[in-house]
Amino acid sequence: MAVRTVVDYGGKVTGTTATEMGADLTFATALVRMSHVVQYVFADVSREYGVTPQQAQLLCMLTGGPIGMTELSRLLHLEKSSLSGLVDRVERRGFLTRVTDPRDRRACQVSLTTEGAQLGEKVHEEICARLEALGAAIPDTDRHRITTALTHLLARSAL
């Protein structure tokens, strides 16, 4: 029996019960479905803040400080030309700037402007708040176990 999952505007999973969903989901299928929920949250939050989901991802990535174009390309899984176009659009909106990489004059790093940093923090906080709300009913020990497992998966994938 196939299980149909629907994500509503609040990021809530509807269309089936959690027990029914867990009954026949494999680990990989659960991760794929969770990635859809995360993508939906990014899309919903970015729309509210007037940016695209890709722009929201870029802003969130840069909240930790400047990142080089090569590293951004790897982190966002974008070809160099696609990343350049994304950076150009966000730069035109005044949210980021390119600066010469102090270690390599031929390369540049992308850095948030003050306005971009404020927006990036707001977007990141809202995305995290919505995802935290999804897991609010999960006991702390299970949340810790899930967090640890996901952290290991992220480390193995070199994200």
UniProtKB/TrEMBL annotation:
HTH marR-type domain residues: 24-155
Membrane-traversing stretches: none
Short name of one Pfam family: MarR_2
Name of the protein: MarR family transcriptional regulator
Organism from which the protein derives: Microtetraspora glauca
